Amino acid sequence: MNPSWRASVLGSQLAELLRRPGRLVTTGMSVVVAAFVVFATVMAQQITTNTTVDHFRGTPEAASLVVTPSGDSAAISGTTLKKIRTLPGVAEAVGRVETGAPLAGPSEHWLELHSDPGTGPLSEVRLVKGTYPDRIGEIAVNNRAAEELELAPGARTSLKIADRKDGDKTVEVTVTVTGVVKSTATAEQQAGGYTTDAFVAPLADQPGFQRVEIRAKDGVPAGELSEQVRRVLDVAPSAASLKSGSTVRAQEAREALNGDVRELFQVISVFLTVAVAAAAMVATSAFRIVFAQRLRQLALLRAIGAPQGRLVTALVVEGALVGAVSGSLGVLMALAAGHLAPSASRILAGQELSAPGFPVLSAVLVVAGAMLVTVCAVLAPALSAAGVSPLQALRAAGTVTGERGINRTRLAAGILLAIASTGLAVVQLRDLPQPGQMNYDRENAMMVTVASAGFAFLALIALGPLLVRPVLTVAGWPLRLLGSTGGLAVSGVGGTPRRAASVSVVVALGVALVSGALVSIDGLDSHLERTAAVDSPADFRVEAGSKGLDDRAVRQFVASPHLAHVTRYRSVQVVIGPKGAAKEIEVSDLDPHALPTGRSIDTVTGSLGNLRPGSAVVASEVADLFGVKAGDAITLPSSLPSSLERGDPRRRGSIKLTVAATLPGDGPGMADILVAPADLDRMGASGWATGIFADAATQGLAGRGKAQRVLEALVREQFPHRDDVTISVLAEARDHDRNTIQMTGTIALGLLALTVLIAVVGVTATTSLTAIERTGEFALLRALGLSRGALRRTITMEAGLYGVLGGVLGLALGIPYAWLLVRIVLTEAPLRLPGGQLLVVFSVLTILTALAGLLPARRATRVTPMTALSSTE
After folding, report:
1. What is d(CA 752, CA 763) in angstroms, rounded to the nearest whole number?
2. What confidence score (pLDDT) does residue 5 get?
3. Residue 834 pLDDT more than 80?
């Protein structure tokens, strides 16, 4: 064969690509989005890493040297710090102390204390209100302390500091708040106070500093500065170690990135793989349609002697060119978005983010990866298009692209994958753990479930063309009622099941992931609500020890306008079980419906509504110990005070109760058994309350802080001589868990939404190419009297149907596997279907895919019937 074939075939294909730039844009859209997603994640990782290092490492960038205690030394003395500051090569030296102290009063309020210069390169705070401390007894506070503790500039408060002379005692030190600062080095998850190293000593129970950071003067070499500092340390009474600032920062960065951040990006990598796979599927479908449209050209080349290998090479080069252009565009867009993110975050959310930098190597790898994806996407359709005989290829393009059904090999593979998926799922369903079961290999079960879901998705890819028509029969029924346009739309999608399946499967992937995430988050959130109803049924808990709270004290709590849902309870301790295996349990008369969280408590058997005199609600451990369920009888011993005579009739016999319900875990307030107040009286409980639960009347940190201060004041007023009355803030742990789930859920949904974005882009590309391919068909419809508006509605409905098909298949795939995974991870988590959210996802996706067809529809309606009928393509 003539060697010039290589150049001539390649030249003809490149000329065709340049002659039709719209096809280049259409086929490259999915690759642009995929490259943007991947490199945007690289930029997000850079931002997160830099922000984590900058905000949590604790060593400013300007610190040249860091001195820390070593050996038996507990701290670096103030004398040593003064000597370091006098060195000729030192521009600035700062002593660091990180400690904490409770606010005066019987509260859980804790103030983290930090020493910081307040200004200059070594400062880790930025003043936002007031002034920074300039004398002993002054502090600045962060935003959380200002809001939660109402410590505005000018406020005075007292801290409990350990007595230097007697470590077992504390002294109260009064401080004045001079300003509010924003920390640039620590997350404001705790209320914090700041003052200079010169004034921190009276507030810290330490003899010196935990570290000293040193900034060198301009032009002073690091080695010379180190020698100067070492001479001071050698003569210092206490030994210390010296490290360069860069070494300390690198160590802190490794420690910061070894935890949740690294795990987060491991999860992100999984989603990236899914997104890239989705983009490859969309690109493959797009190239298949493009090559089908060019069968006449390919057939002519084959007829005049062009070898099949040369055609495949030319088409692959075309794919690589599309990948290079699209990948570069996606990388540039992500690079711009990454560098705009810190400014946008600061303006819109008030969050300080670090700049991502310019990861050149990653950019090159993403572009190379985009080229690889497109080349791989081109291979299958290129081999198919270049492999047809000249006579077969000279047929209309639509006869190829409209092929229905699948071959036997694909059918057999799909059936085998479906059988494997079903088999693994059945095994997992049969071996699901029971509530409270500990000896269960959850990690292995999760891997098997993920494998089952993967097989199910592969089966969906293989068998997709066979599923289009059955699903379309039901899903397209409402459209047929709209008249001819709806019927044409359904017929247009159903007439090309392979194309419809290839696009809908990508949509289904996005819907399955998003719906699965929503179901999982809802299940986890429900489990959290149930756990909070048990562990933290209210914002606060006041416990009064053995003496209890009298009715007058309880009325004072109830009357406070800053408290809500004040609920008293009593409890007694009883011993159950055989001798030698006896167990002490807590029996309480807390009404589970008295607090708003009571509605979140689930039961294994029975109902909480059945709790009345003569019945009991039993926690899981006690239910297992007695072997009871709802409706069974349970016998509890009396627990009257020992001062009663043995002959007292209340001590003879036991109390027999009917089990109203059993719980999957502990009862609210960590009680083992809940009974009615009358039954607790029969067990010898005191008439005084053991404690109360209460919520803040106003939501937010400020309202909660006010409520806590009111509780503290009431406790001090009513019990001035008692130290057994304690206040526990239960809301903080509950809020932390909820924030963690919300943050994780938001990140997961944001990443998964990228897959849906790629799916919508795929619908746009497919609809655009289809509009070009079916020019003759649309022209005939126009010639038969179909108006421009009706044709536009038809094409838009077809695009929307891709979303409907993908939505139905995705929900059918995502919901069951999400439930299975949640059931494996948390056996007590209920299956909750967030119907409203799923409906919104389905509706929005359908609308987005329909909108994706607007531009192709508008383009298709521009051609007049005569012009379109005369077109050869």
Report:
1. 17
2. 44
3. yes
CB 802, CB 504: distance < 8 Å: yes
Beta bridge partners of 586: 573
Cβ contacts of 555 within 8 Å, gap of 6 or more: none
Average pLDDT over residues 603-608: 86
More confident residue, 96 or 704: 96
CA distances from 82 to 214, 220, 388, 833 (A): 12, 20, 86, 65
617, 592 contact by CB (below 8 A)? yes
Encode pLDDT of 198-253 as tens digits. 888 878 767 788 889 999 998 888 888 888 888 887 654 456 788 888 888 777 77
CA distance 58 to 210: 12
Q: Residue 634: is its pLDDT beyond 80? A: yes
Q: Which of 586, 619, 582, 627 is nearest to 601 (CA)?
A: 619
Residue 237 is predicted with a pLDDT of 47
CB-count exposure of residue 255 (10 Å: 0-12, 13-18, 19+): exposed
If you average pLDDT over residues 284-302, what whole number do you get?
A: 61
Q: Which of 686, 837, 858 is nearest to 764 (CA)?
A: 858
Q: Which residue has the higher pLDDT, 578 or 835?
A: 835
Alpha helix (H) ranges present in 432-586? 442-475, 477-480, 484-494, 497-535, 551-559
* Residues 577, 634 contacting (CB under 8 angstroms): no
The three-state DSSP-derived secondary structure of 65-118 is EEEEECCCCCCECHHHHHHHHCCCCEEEEEEECEEEEEECCCCCCEEEEEECCC
How many C-beta neighbours within 10 Å does residue 743 have?
11
Residue 296, beta-bridge partner list? none
pLDDT of 602 = 78
Which of 338, 356, 358, 357 minimizes the C-alpha distance to 47? Answer: 356
Which structure tokens are listed for 873? Answer: 């393509």
pLDDT of residue 451: 82
Single-letter code of the amino acid located at 25: V
Closest CA to 756 of 369, 333, 282, 330: 282
- Residues counted in the chain: 873
**Can you give the pLDDT at residue 266?**
55
Of 588, 733, 614, the C-alpha closest to 667 is 588
Compute CA distances 638 → 313, 478, 650, 674, 676, whole Å: 89, 67, 8, 15, 15
CB-CB contact of 853 with 795 (8 Å) = yes
Residues in a beta bridge with 501 = none
| Amino acid at the residue 112 | E
In the chain, % helix, strand, coil (3-state, to 5) comes to 55, 15, 30
Assess contact for 36 and 334: CB atoms under 8 A.
yes
End-to-end CA distance of the chain: give it in Å, rounded: 30
Statement: the pTM of the whole predicted model exceeds 0.70: no
* Partner residues linked to 842 by β-bridges: none
SS3 readout for 396-408: CHHHHHCCCCCCH
Instruction: Provide the 3-class DSSP secondary structure of residue 600.
Output: helix
Angle formed at CA 236 by CA 234 and CA 241, multiple of 5 degrees: 60
Alpha carbon distance 636, 653 (integer Å): 10
User: Which of 553, 542, 556 lies closest to 695 in space, CA to CA?
Assistant: 542
Compute the distance between CA of residue 873 and CA of residue 864 in angstroms, rounded to an integer: 15
> By three-state DSSP, how is residue 657 classified?
strand
Return d(Cα 862, Cα 873) in angstroms, integer. Answer: 16
Beta bridge partners of 138: 176
Looking only at the bridges linking them, the beta strands covering 673-675 and 583-588 are parallel
3-state secondary structure of 618: strand
Bigger pLDDT: 289 or 199?
Answer: 199
- Beta-sheet strands, E only, within 17-63: none
Q: What is the pLDDT of residues 250-265, one digit of tens each?
A: 777 776 666 555 555 5
Contact 181, 127 (CB under 8 A): yes
Alpha helix positions (H), 20-72: 21-56
Measure CA 830 to chain center: 20
